Amino acid sequence: xxxxxxxxxxxxxxxxxxxxxxxxxxxxxxxxxYAPDYASGELEQELERALxxxxxxxxxxxxxxxxxxxxxxxxxxxxxxxxxxxxxGSLPRAPFSGLPVAAPAEMAATAxxxxxxxxxxxxxxxxxxxxxxxxxxxxHAQTMREHALxxxxxxxxxxxxxxxxxxxxxxxxxEMLTWTARRVSGFDLWQPAAHELPAWPGGAVLSFGxxxxxxxxxxxxxxxxxxxxxxxxxxxxALRHAFxxxxxxxxxxxxxxxxxxxxNAYHVNDWSLQELEHELCDAALGSFAQLDLHHWHQGPDGLxxxxxxxxxxxWLLVSEGRT
Length: 323
Fold this sequence. Notes:
33% of the residues lie in helices and 20% in strands. It has helices spanning 6-10, 13-22, 40-53, 73-88, 104-118, 141-154, 172-177, 235-245, 256-259, 273-284; strands at residues 2-5, 30-36, 63-69, 162-166, 183-188, 205-208, 222-226, 248-254, 290-298, 304-306, 314-322.
């Protein structure tokens, strides 16, 4: 991962041009652009403009992830200190902004534990080579990028609230949600062995062996369900459980034309976009008088755009219940 502050990067097209010359889509690195006090739409427009000015290919060029978050001096100081440690192996002598500072030895021990559980050959399930299964260290980096971008999309929809991550898998997305959410609870049917129990620093509480179709969920403000509904034997029941627990559901669903059961044997619901909308509205009826649907879509390049596109590769919907 490479890190840049938006103001510095956008103000110097030469930096972006040089980065684009050295890093391409096949390189295992993502440029994270931290943009305090930018609106998400504003950041997207500014990045697109900067990429054009720098002659960087937006399709076959480097992976870039923009994070439009509120300004936080403590976070910025922590990021700077972490970068110093990565580059020099040394931490600042004085603690910064009251945040706990781990010694390099402690960081190394944490990294060792992380490497231990991530080395499991059955991480996230019995078929880790399934191209659409996402987990840290997976062999299909492009798929991981697509999944991570969905969680990045959700950050503004979960800011400051308790969020449920339905079908959380190993919890990499739950960890991302902790960046803006007040509290994160993850749920997955997978039951990891003791040696592959995920460990993340952000504080998300992960519950395994949870059947989304049968088990009730705790009350919260928002739930996310990315690439999970198509896997569920009783998806309508799972949606009813979700709307009984939250007012807002943020989900993604693959277009079965490209990602249906003919492609992935673990997909059991080949719903069209219209069928998905119908199932969402039906499931919400027991909890709300009305359901507002807001549409986005994700293309083969992984980028997410607003609007309803039945022919898109993936559909993203934000469903808001109204009483």
